[in-house]
């Protein structure tokens, strides 16, 4: 190649790893297994008091992709997640209950 070299600005990328498996918010504890996954997994929830909840699944820019109402019969419960239709990326799962909000990040890698 006989083209003159092109001078570009140097670029650096910083990656910060956080605990993607479990986060606690208020009196609501959440975890998802496996994480990362291909989109299928199990969401484990612990509430300090029994109440109806809403689960929001959103992109990292805040756009809500899915909303579910959950009526648990026990303070500790689990439910299957099927997010296989979503593209690879990081998603936020947020469980809103009467006593607080729990959230965590889930990575989908296909």
Structure, described:
- This protein is an all-beta fold and 110 residues long.
- Helix content is 0%, strand content 52%.
- It is built from no helices and 8 strands.
- Strands 1-2-3-6 form a 4-stranded antiparallel sheet, with no helix packed on it. Strands 5-4-7-8 form a 4-stranded antiparallel sheet, with no helix packed on it.
- It is elongated.
- The model is unreliable at 17-25 (pLDDT under 50).
Main attributes?
110 residues, 4-stranded antiparallel sheet, mainly beta, elongated
Q: Report how far the terminal alpha carbons are from each other.
A: 38 Å
Mean pLDDT: 85
How many β strands by DSSP?
Answer: 8
Count of alpha and pi helical runs: 0
> Biggest sheet, open or closed, and with what strands and sense?
4 strands, antiparallel
Task: Write the H/E string, N to C.
Answer: EEEEEEEE
Tell me roughly what share of residues is in helical segments: under 10%
Q: In percent, how much strand structure appears in the residues?
A: over 45%
C-alpha geometry = elongated
Segments where pLDDT lies below 50 for 5+ residues? Answer: 17-25
Give the secondary structure arrangement, pairings included.
Elements: E1 22-25, E2 28-33, E3 40-47, E4 53-59, E5 64-70, E6 76-82, E7 89-97, E8 100-108
Antiparallel strand pairs: 1-2, 2-3, 3-6, 4-5, 4-7, 7-8
């Amino acid at each position: 190649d006989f083209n003159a070299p092109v001078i570009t600005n140097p670029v650096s990328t910083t990656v910060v790893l956080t605990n993607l498996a479990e986060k606690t918010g208020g009196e609501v504890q959440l975890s998802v297994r496996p994480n990362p996954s291909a989109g299928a997994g199990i969401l484990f929830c612990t509430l300090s008091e029994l109440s109806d909840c809403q689960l929001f699944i959103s992109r990292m820019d805040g756009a809500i992709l899915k909303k579910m109402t959950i009526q648990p019969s026990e303070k500790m419960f689990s439910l299957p997640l099927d997010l296989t239709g979503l593209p690879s990326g990081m998603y936020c799962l947020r469980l809103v209950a009467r006593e607080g909000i729990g959230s965590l990040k889930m990575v989908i890698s296909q």
